[in-house]
């Protein structure tokens, strides 16, 4: 099965955004994963949401001119995921997160995206885990409903430090919230020393998928040092009917030492590997 390949626009944050999009097109990838990351990406929510239709149309014009599709819009409201976690105990912060999510849906729809991702929420000190999880479930259920009104698929990314840091808890949360899907990223599990097999059941819940190198102790590493069996993952995707994008997602940030790779070269290496798997699917 042919696979659609995208690249994150935050892979090369030191370039101007228009040049990042040109670079992605030059790498002959079909799509872009756009990060609306406050304080740490090219496109900040506080800037883009000043005039949502205008900002979204500007992005769409840029993408259309390069023959690129908008694969995903990923919203984060602060460089630290705790202050505006969707399940924040502070009601005012939750309200701000909801308002920003609705603007994200409007932005994504206007720009031509049919997929939006957020983080799933966080555990909070001083309250039972069940309370944090229940509030996350309520907020995610509301977001699923809002996304449906826009014809958009909504997903969360289970990640290190979140309320669902491992495959078992991630699947439990998806099962708790009807209609919720995953932007699945094995690297957060590999970094914790978890085997690929633990994450494999999550593929049937995935609507988007992130690809990069990782291994035990390293959230991001080179293609050469990667231990995730992406060939096996593609095989399971074929078996389960996964039809979403493969977003190659190298990042450049001090968090988790994710600034120690040659992002451009590693993106190209994974691009070529994924293409070779599709051309010659000799599954292990």
What does this structure look like?
The protein is of the alpha/beta class and 284 residues long. It has a single domain, classed as TIM Barrel (Alpha-Beta Barrel). It has ten helices and ten strands. The protein has helices spanning 17-26, 45-48, 52-66, 91-111, 129-149, 167-176, 187-190, 196-199, 230-240, 263-279; strands at residues 5-8, 31-37, 69-76, 115-118, 153-156, 181-184, 206-211, 213-215, 218-221, 246-248. The strands form two sheets. The protein has an eight-stranded parallel barrel with strand order 1-2-3-4-5-6-7-10, surrounded by five helices. The chain has a two-stranded antiparallel sheet with strand order 8-9. α4 links the parallel β3 (69-76) and β4. α3 crosses α4 (91-111). The longest helix is centred in the middle third of the chain and has 21 residues, at 91-111. The two termini are 17 Å apart. The relative contact order is 0.13.
């Amino acid at each position: 099965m042919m696979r659609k390949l995208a690249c994150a626009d935050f892979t090369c944050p030191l370039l101007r955004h228009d040049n990042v999009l040109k670079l992605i097109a030059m790498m002959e990838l079909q799509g872009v994963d756009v990060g609306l990351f406050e304080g740490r990406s090219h496109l900040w929510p506080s800037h883009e949401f000043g005039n949502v239709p205008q900002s979204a149309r500007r992005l769409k014009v840029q993408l259309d001119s390069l023959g690129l599709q908008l694969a995903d819009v990923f919203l984060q409201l602060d460089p630290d995921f705790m202050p505006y976690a969707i399940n924040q105990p502070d009601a005012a912060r939750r309200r701000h997160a909801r308002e920003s999510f609705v603007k994200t849906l409007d932005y994504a729809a206007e720009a031509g995206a049919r997929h939006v991702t957020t983080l799933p929420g966080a555990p909070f000190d001083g309250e039972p885990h069940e309370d944090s999880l229940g509030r996350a479930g309520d907020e995610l259920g509301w977001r699923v409903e809002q996304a449906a009104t826009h014809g958009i698929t909504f997903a969360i990314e289970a990640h290190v430090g979140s309320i669902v840091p491992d495959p078992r808890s991630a699947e439990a949360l998806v099962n708790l919230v009807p209609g919720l899907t995953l932007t699945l990223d094995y690297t957060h599990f590999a970094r914790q020393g978890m085997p690929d097999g633990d994450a494999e059941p999550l593929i049937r819940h995935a609507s988007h998928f992130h690809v990069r190198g990782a291994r035990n102790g390293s959230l991001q590493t080179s293609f050469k040092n990667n231990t995730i069996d992406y060939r096996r993952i593609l095989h399971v995707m074929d078996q389960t009917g996964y039809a979403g994008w493969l977003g190659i997602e190298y990042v450049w940030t001090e968090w988790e030492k994710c600034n120690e790779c040659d992002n451009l070269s590693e993106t190209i290496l994974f691009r070529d590997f994924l293409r070779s798997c599709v051309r010659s699917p000799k599954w292990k």
